[in-house]
């Protein structure tokens, strides 16, 4: 891996500890999207794979599997995304760019917001926004201005290990059920 590509992926470069500007993933939205889960910014594994929630210990796909009674984890990423879209779920991140070394939200610096106002145009059927974790929830004042329900969910990140899978599932199930998604 070249030094530039290591930095682009949020990894510390061999000769420098300075973070470079990282770019988020494009949104997964459709006109039929009713609920958007907003993360903060993709971790190293997600940037590397160019896939939302790619870290093997991230609980996002296992939580959706449990909510919907299907094995999303066993499917290819393309099939996971297709299933989410078919059920009215969209994915995006609060930040378009930032500087960060590693994957922790606490390491995010100089973040620039995605154009969250565009959610209503990209997903005209949008009914709710669910912030995945505390860092994403910092944008709640922006997302509340969109005129849809806004929810803060416990993070699916492996760094948020203080909550059990079952406890997270109960909160996610309640939020998804309230919006016809479970």
Explain this structure.
The N terminus is likely disordered. The chain has one domain: 3-Layer(aba) Sandwich (Uracil-DNA Glycosylase, subunit E). The strands form 2 sheets. Strands 3-2-6-7 form a 4-stranded parallel beta sheet. The protein has 8 helices and 7 strands, in the order H-E-E-H-H-H-E-E-E-H-E-H-H-E-H. Helices cover 32% and strands 18% of the residues. By secondary structure, the protein is α/β, with parallel strands linked by helices.
Can you write the helix and strand succession as a string? HEEHHHEEEHEHHEH
* Strand runs, count: 7
Number of structurally distinct domains: 1
Major sheet attributes: 4 strands, parallel
Going by CATH, the homologous superfamily would be Uracil-DNA glycosylase-like domain
What is the alpha-carbon Rg in Å? 16 Å
Q: Do you know the CATH topology?
A: Uracil-DNA Glycosylase, subunit E
Overall 3D form: globular
Name the strands of the widest sheet in spatial order. Answer: 3-2-6-7
User: CATH class, please?
Assistant: Alpha Beta
Treating each run of at least 4 consecutive H or I residues as one helix, how many helices? Answer: 8
User: How helical, in percent, are the residues?
Assistant: 25-40%
- The average pLDDT score comes to 89
The proportion of strand residues reads 15-25%
CATH architecture assignment:
3-Layer(aba) Sandwich
Terminal Cα separation, in Å?
42 Å
> Pairing-aware structural class of the strands and helices?
alpha/beta
What low-confidence regions span 5 or more consecutive residues with pLDDT below 50? Answer: 1-16
